[in-house]
Amino acid sequence: MSSVVGEFQVESSKSKSGKHVLYSNVYVYSRAASRILPCDKYVASSTEAKPVYVRGRAKRVSLRVEKGDFVIYVWMVRNYLKRVKGYILLFNHSGELVYKAKYVDGSLRRSVGSPVYAWLVRLFVEQLKIPVRETRLGDESA
User: Fold this and answer.
1) Which residues, at least 6 apart from 97, have a Cβ–Cβ distance to it below 8 Å?
2) Cβ–Cβ < 8 Å for 5, 65
3) Entry pTM
4) Which of 100, 102, 127 is nearest to 114 (CA)?
5) What is the mean pLDDT of the chain?
6) Model confidence at 86: pLDDT above 70
7) 94 touches 121 (CB < 8 A)
8) For residue 142, pLDDT beyond 60
9) pLDDT of residue 6
10) How many percent of the chain have pLDDT more than 90?
11) In principle, which of 31, 55, 81, 113 could form an S-S bond with 68, CB 3.0–4.6 Å?
């Protein structure tokens, strides 16, 4: 049984001066495959959208996922000082936000949601090789 989840803005754009860069993308954790996959084969619908910055492209996508799968939405921006800020959102198969982690210059911390889902954020960060110095995702032992 599959369901269609959300309108996610997938984007890669730069400011006119090139000092600010924005990147956002969607990934799917497939329970059947037990790994994180790009959203390409899960796209139900796609429409063109206006990017945040002048140079680049953006589109809005809806995904069709199976029960037990998770949708991972990542949004990152790099400023002129080369500092990176962003967040990682985790949605379940019915489109409900179950976890949100905030990323600021190598520090990753939980904002919203149960620490039960922290393992998936850790797996995502490891697979995409996002540099992380410190984590406070809520699943650390005291």
Assistant:
1) 89, 90, 91, 112, 113
2) yes
3) 0.94
4) 100
5) 94
6) yes
7) no
8) no
9) 85
10) 89
11) 31
Candidates 106, 60, 100; CA nearest to 83 is 106
Closest Cα to residue 86, out of 70, 115, 107, 71?
A: 107
Do 95 and 28 meet the contact criterion of CB atoms below 8 Å apart? Answer: no
pLDDT tens per residue, range 105-134 = 999 999 999 999 999 999 999 999 999 999
Q: What is the pLDDT of residue 2?
A: 83
Structural tokens at position 111: 């904002």
Tokens found for residue 28: 């799917």
C-alpha atoms less than 13 angstroms from C-alpha of 88 in its C-beta half-sphere: 25
Give the sign of the dihedral formed by CA 88, CA 61, CA 22, CA 129. Answer: positive
CB–CB of 99/118 below 8 Å?
yes
pLDDT digits (tens, 9 = 90+) for 8-30: 999 999 999 999 999 999 999 99
Backbone angles phi, psi at 125, to 5 degrees: -65, -40
Q: How far apart are the first and last CA of the chain?
A: 39
Largest CA distance in the chain: 47
- Any idea how long the chain is? 142
